[in-house]
Each structure stands twice: as structure tokens, then as C-alpha cells.
Amino acid sequence: MKPSRRSILSRLDDTVRWTGIPARVADQMSDDPSVDYKHPPLRWGPIWPIAFSCALFILSLTWPPALDRLSPGAGIALFGGLMASIVGAVLAIHPSGPLGKPSLEDDEREAALRKDSFLFCLGLLACLNCLGQPFLMILSHLQNWQTVRSVSVAGSALILNLTLFGCLPTLYASWNLRQLPKE
Amino acid sequence: MNLHNRISVFRAEHGISRRQLAEAVGVNSQTIGYLERGDYKPSLELALKIARHFGVAVEMLFSFDRFEPIAMTLKRAGEDE
Asked: Any idea what the CATH number is for the domain that residue B20 is in?
């Protein structure tokens, strides 16, 4: 088959192969992987999306005109926040699979660490939301928020929640582990 | 309660790396490192697997009391002889 007549699906397959991810996964799942795959701590990566989402939330609370008019800067900030939450969600520790039980990816120590990380994250998120929701409701009544402002605050709060849910477990697990000396 | 172990001593005696031991007992090599340093307490299953790999009882590898230094053990063995 000529390259020009190839279907979209085969082109997509080629694109995926080009990323190198299928080869890496096949190597990782083989009986004799070429390298010793480790799960390195990500101590700084998750901080950036969290900081960005916090800044966006504070901006929506303290400087609403920027978001009300949806200027290009505010649009970029919103888009960036959304991207940050997505990046956060694909970081090392994710909620897939049973918590606390070893799987193909995690051994028993990593599974226990993942469970601890999610318990910490969910506990902190529950506390923040329990305190934050009444605070926001009172603030909205005191300042007579219009619909647009309420929506922008709620949207930035959602982005902050998603980012924290995606990034906090990785951050907790990464800082919880001390670096191992090389053998 | 602290759980002491001497996995690194047995590993050195058998001349195997962390990665080799990890593959033998089915965990990540980092887990062996954290075990040796005492940062992680293994499950009963993992402790038994490691003991079986070295062909010793689990009490030889793990203890709630600090293990006697090897120099002391050798000295005592020399005195006994």
C-alpha cells in the first residue's frame, strides 16, 4: 500500500509508535526489561500546577474584572489552569486500580504509599472544601456577587480542586521518601 | 516498634545486587533499598520470600531487637573455639 493511500487509523498508529511509548511499555512488561525501571520522586513538578491554580483562584476572588471581561490574559490563565489540572492528573500517582493492593505497576510498598498519599490528599481536600464552601457563600452575599463572578469563582475553584486531586498525592509521596544512596 | 533487619549483610554475603534480589522476590529494587534502610516494614509474605531466597529462617533476617555487630559475633565464635 502506498503511503498516500494509508488510512487515518494506520497513520495514527504510526504516530503513536513514533512517540516510543508502545516500545517502552512492551519492554517494561517483558520478562527481561532492558533497564531497571524506577519510579523517581517528583518533588518540584507538581508544585507548579498547584501554584498556578492557587494564583488563578486568588485572582478570581480579588480581581474579578479581569475574569469578568474575559480578556486574553484571563483566557490564557484559565486555559493554563485547565492544562495544569490535566498535567496534574497524569502525574505519577493516579487513582486507577485498587488502593493499597499491589498491581502490575506497583509492588506492595508503592501500593501502600499510593494509598497513604490518596488518604492524605482526600482528607486535605475534604477539609478545604468544608471550610471553603461556607466562606465563599458568605463572601458572595456580603459582596453581592453577580452571576458572572460566581461562575468565574466556581470555575477557578473547580480547577483548583482538580489540580490538587491530581498533584497532591504525587507531591506527598515524593516528599515522604528520602533519596536512596546509589548501590 | 522498630523492625531491624540485616538484608544487606545477607545480600553482600551472597554477592547479589538489590535488583537481583528484587527480581527474585517480585518487588521494585527501590523497595529493597528502603527495606534495608528500615524505612519500610515488609508484609509477612515479602519477609518470608526474602528469607526463603537466602535459605534462612525469617528471624535471622528480621528482629525487633538490634542485631549484634558481626565483629562481636566473630569474636565470640573465636573465643568459643
From this structure: 1.10.260.40
**B19–A contact, CB cutoff 8 A:** yes
Range of the domain at B38: 4-80
Query: Considering the entire predicted model, what is its pTM?
Result: 0.70
pLDDT of A92 reads 60
Structural domain total, chain B: 1
Q: Do A107 and B27 touch (CB under 8 A)?
A: yes
Q: Is A99 exposed, middle or buried (0-12, 13-18, 19+ CB in 10 A)?
A: middle
Measured in angstroms, the CA of A41 and the nearest CA of chain B are apart by 11
Residues of A in contact with B16 (CB under 8 A): none
**pLDDT single digits (tens) A79-104:** 776 666 666 556 666 666 666 666 66
B80 touches chain A (CB under 8 A): no
